[in-house]
Design a protein that fits this description.
mainly alpha; 120 residues; elongated; two-stranded antiparallel sheet
């Protein structure tokens, strides 16, 4: 049975197509480094986009949308994207709270300094 890349779905029929030439690697040579570790999503997305532009003749914008939609359905990215979606709102809220607190502290500090100047 032909093994497929868990990141992009490419059929890997020869050991040279696997990451690092290792036939046990679950990622292809385009999606992973020689060590077998998967590349970051933006790099894989760019590679898939270029593939679609060259081989399918799609405009770059459409190719990027199609590549992103396809990659997000693949096992390697499905779980990672779910985790990222859950994590982002919490981090964004936390950052927003920190900004508000920092602004309030700065405002209080300005008021205190202004009061001290008036007393002099």
């Amino acid at each position: 049975m032909v093994m497929k890349c868990r990141s992009c779905g490419m059929p890997m029929t020869t050991p040279g197509q696997h990451a690092g030439g290792n036939p046990r690697a679950v990622y292809c040579g385009y999606c992973a480094a020689r060590s077998g570790k998967i590349k970051p999503f933006p790099q894989v997305l760019e590679g898939m986009t270029n593939f679609l532009v060259i081989n399918q003749g799609l405009p770059k914008v459409e190719a990027r949308k199609a590549a992103k939609a396809y990659l997000l359905k693949m096992p390697a990215w499905r779980a990672a994207m779910k985790k990222a979606k859950k994590a982002k709102p919490k981090k964004a809220k936390k950052k927003a709270r920190k900004k508000v607190k920092k602004a309030k502290r700065a405002k209080r500090g300005k008021k205190r300094r202004a009061k001290a100047r008036r007393r002099r």
